[in-house]
């Protein structure tokens, strides 16, 4: 039928009464105009919307044909994958949690030569079992002020966190460790 070959100018724009009547007649015969490619196609070229009924009991259809819908979906997916990279999500997480950007994190990492601020090891040196390894240094910050202090390996960060980030407790722990290394193998409770 000639409906599938109608051009945009014949369907849109200034249509006279006769052209408008012909267009409505084609729609009643099961044709629909795609809003993207502007072609008049049979309604089987359009996807159905969930629920609802269109004109004269016909199924409710999307305004663009399936081919145009698919190409639009692909363009959207491509744009999203280009924008939403893993670095994008890391940057957002760093900004939300600590108020620093990924660039600032990388600058801190370079300033620390990729080493933990406490133990001077890389995350790769800490774990023998690679399944336990976290390849990134974590951001150590003051829980009261929110100020970023530096980058630590997860072991040092957890150790400090378990001691409540208290300098007093950390000093006591260091004193005990130093005193223990100076003893002649006797347990501390027998001194």
Architecture blueprint of SSEs:
Elements: H1 8-11, H2 17-28, E1 31-33, E2 40-42, E3 46-53, E4 59-65, H3 66-83, H4 86-98, H5 102-111, H6 123-126, E5 138-141, E6 148-152, H7 154-162, H8 167-182
Antiparallel strand pairs: 1-2, 3-4, 5-6
User: Oligomer, anyone?
Assistant: single chain
Which percent range fits the helix content?
40-55%
CATH topology of the largest domain: His-Me finger endonuclease fold
Mean pLDDT across every amino acid position: 77
Low-confidence stretches: 1-12
**How far is the N terminus from the C terminus?**
104 Å
Strands across the major sheet, in which order? 1-2
**What number of structural domains do the residues give?**
2
Radius of gyration: 34 Å
The biggest beta sheet is recorded as:
2 strands, antiparallel
Class per helix and strand makeup: alpha+beta
Number of strands: 6
Name the CATH superfamily assignment of the largest domain: His-Me finger endonucleases
Descriptive account of the structure:
The chain is of the alpha+beta class and 191 residues long. It folds into 2 domains: 2-72, Wheat Germ Agglutinin (Isolectin 2), domain 1; 86-180, His-Me finger endonucleases (His-Me finger endonuclease fold, 3-Layer(aba) Sandwich), CATH 3.40.1800. It contains 8 helices and 6 strands. The chain has helices at 8-11, 17-28, 66-83, 86-98, 102-111, 123-126, 154-162, 167-182; strands spanning 31-33, 40-42, 46-53, 59-65, 138-141, 148-152. It is rod-shaped and about 105 Å long.
């Amino acid at each position: 039928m000639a409906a599938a070959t109608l051009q945009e100018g014949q369907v849109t724009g200034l249509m006279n009464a006769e052209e408008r009547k012909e267009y409505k007649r084609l729609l009643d015969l099961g044709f629909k105009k795609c809003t993207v490619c502007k072609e008049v196609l049979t309604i089987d070229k359009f996807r159905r919307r969930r629920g609802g009924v269109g004109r004269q009991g016909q199924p409710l259809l999307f305004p663009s044909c399936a081919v145009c819908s698919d190409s639009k979906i692909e363009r959207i997916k491509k744009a999203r994958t280009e924008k939403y990279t893993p670095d994008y999500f890391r940057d957002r997480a760093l900004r939300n949690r600590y108020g620093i950007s990924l660039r600032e994190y990388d600058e801190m990492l370079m300033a620390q030569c990729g080493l933990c601020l406490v133990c001077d090891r890389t995350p790769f040196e800490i774990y023998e079992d690679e399944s336990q390894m976290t390849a990134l240094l974590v951001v150590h910050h003051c829980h009261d002020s929110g100020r970023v202090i530096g980058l630590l390996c997860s072991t040092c960060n957890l150790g400090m966190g378990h001691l409540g980030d208290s300098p007093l407790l950390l000093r006591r722990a260091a004193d005990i460790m130093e005193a223990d290394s100076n003893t002649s193998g006797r347990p501390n409770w027998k001194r």
